[in-house]
Structure formats: structure tokens, C-alpha cells
Amino acid sequence: MMFDGELKDGYYIEPTIIDGLPVDCQTNQKEIFGPVVSMIPFNTEEEVIEMANSTKYGLSASLFTRDISRSHRVAAAIDSGVIWVNTWMLRDLRIPFGGMKSSGVGREGGFTSLQFFTEPKNICIKV
């Protein structure tokens, strides 16, 4: 543990940073909906892309780099519904949001939400 988030009263934990876990451990293979990050060192783009895609989930990913060309390459190769570059959770509600693979139930946001949550119906009335 690099930063051990304490369990507070109720159902919340403080931000937690974990290092030293293998890629295939449950912490790195499941979706953790909390302030938890697992740090895994890597040597090449190919290696980190393979690690990111090794899970059956693909809700979102964040990339941090100074190389904009690299961000485009890596983002295109990662199987995730949303890729944030040099930020996290920056979201415009007019743009579709949702995961790939076993993450989520489709897309939500903007016109996509109307299509997902409604059923079109044609009603014709002669007056």
C-alpha cells in the first residue's frame, strides 16, 4: 500500500493507492467503484495496452502523458468506452458515456439517452 485509505464511519473509504499487485489479481481484474488506484509499472506501450485490455471490463481509462501522439495511439488501442487524457471524469452530458465488454448496459447521455430509454411510437389521427 502506497497510501492506505482509512475506512470511515458509514460506507466510504478514503483514497487508496495500491502497488505491487500482479496484473491478474482480482483487484486489477474487477471494476472497483471507489477512490482506489492500482499502480503497475510497465516498460512499453504494447505491455501497458495488453495489461489494460486483459480484463473483461472496459468502462473507462485515464492516460497521463506529455506526448499527444502517444495518447492517440494508446487510446485507440485500449478497449474502453471512455478514455480520459491527462484528466479524469471530465464529462459533457451531451456526449454519450458508457463502457465496452462487460461494463455498463449501453450508452447514456445526450440523444443516445433518448434512444436508449424510449421506444418510438407513431400515432396517426385523422381529424
Characterise this structure.
The protein is α/β, with parallel strands linked by helices and 127 residues long. Strands 1-2 form a two-stranded parallel sheet. Strands 3-6 form a two-stranded antiparallel sheet. Strand 4 (60-63), helix 3 and strand 5 form a beta-alpha-beta unit. It is extended, with a radius of gyration of 19 Å. The model has no long low-confidence stretch (mean pLDDT 90). The longest helix has 10 residues, at 68-77. The protein has 4 helices and 6 strands, in the order E-H-E-H-E-E-H-E-E-H. It has helices at 26-29, 45-52, 68-77, 110-117, and strands spanning 16-19, 36-39, 57-58, 60-63, 82-85, 100-101. It has 2 domains: 1-41, no CATH class; 57-126, no CATH class.
Distinctive features:
about 130 residues, NAD, 4 helices, single chain, Aldehyde dehydrogenase domain-containing protein, 2 domains, two-stranded antiparallel ribbon, oxidoreductase activity, acting on the aldehyde or oxo group of donors, NAD or NADP as acceptor, Ald_DH_C, two-stranded parallel ribbon
Number of distinct beta strands? 6
Please state the average pLDDT score: 90
Estimate the global geometry from the Cα principal axes.
extended
Q: What about the largest sheet?
A: 2 strands, parallel
Poorly predicted residue ranges: none
Residues in helices, as a percent range: 10-25%
Percentage beta strand: 15-25%
Summarize the helices and strands and which ones pair or pack:
Layout (H helix, E strand, L loop, with lengths): L15 E4 L6 H4 L6 E4 L5 H8 L4 E2 L1 E4 L4 H10 L4 E4 L14 E2 L8 H8 L10
